[in-house]
Amino acid sequence: MYHFYVFLLGFFFSFVGSIPPGTLNVTVLQLALQDKVAIAKRFALAVAIIEYPYAWIGVQFEYWLSSSPMVVHNFQLIAAVVMTALGIFNLLPSKPANGLAKKISESGFRRGLVLSILNPMAIPYWMGFTAYLKAQGWISLSTTSLLHSYVLGTSVGALALLFSLIRFSRKVAPYLQGNFLVRTIPGFVLLALGLYAFARYLFL
Questions:
Q1: Among residues 28, 16, 33, which one has the least CA distance to residue 129?
Q2: How confident is the model at residue 98 (pLDDT cuts 50, 70, 90)?
Q3: What is the greatest pairwise CA distance in the chain?
Q4: Residue ranges of the domains in the chain?
Q5: Which own/partner contact pairs does 96-102 have at CB distance under 8 Å and 24+ positions apart?
Q6: Cα–Cα distances in Å, from 179 out to 13, 135, 162, 182, 183?
Q7: Is the predicted pLDDT of residue 6 greater than 80, yes or no?
Q8: How far apart, in Å, do the first and last CA atoms of the chain sit?
Q9: What are the tens digits of pLDDT across the range 180-204?
């Protein structure tokens, strides 16, 4: 049962974290709007596959950092700072796809692999988020199976968000491309979690 809970945590925060417009989800949306649904699905699958090792690497970095006595002593404060920084980063305007992205072939899967590999923000995101969840006592990744349940949740969460964009592309396109609230809500959620961690550090 706890494995499922860990999976759901990874799924939920990956789904929410994939909402802000960026190279990957905007590319999926554009492919779907061009009626290239099969290509868009292969692209989304490649993105989800890369999310798995990137999330795993992020967790490994978190393990390494948390082994330092100084980090352990200030774990709550560090988690608060990281979450606040992630929130601010999510609120910054995203950069448009670079020239390389436009030169990649029409193969959805290869395109998804390349763009995902060139977009490794998942590593610091999951490093910070895992540290935060552990600092709040909301998660324990004490076994290999728990770790992979969590990382699998992050991969499936990204896939679910991208498939949702494909299915409802014509309805969600105006909101994802131009709606301020849709772009900023995940950032505000991260900021709120960061402020909550600061409050726990200062007053508990």
A1: 16
A2: very low
A3: 54
A4: 2-203
A5: 96/23, 97/23, 97/26, 97/27, 101/23, 101/27
A6: 21, 33, 18, 6, 7
A7: yes
A8: 30
A9: 555 566 667 767 777 877 787 777 6
In the chain, which ranges are continuous DSSP H helix? 2-17, 23-33, 37-66, 69-73, 75-91, 99-103, 108-117, 122-135, 144-167, 169-178, 180-203
pTM (2 d.p.): 0.72
pLDDT at 105: 43
Q: For residues 11, 171, 49 and 93, what is the CA-based torsion angle, rounded to 10 degrees?
A: -80
Question: Are the C-beta atoms of 43 and 112 separated by less than 8 Å?
Answer: yes
Closest CA to 130 of 156, 153, 159: 153
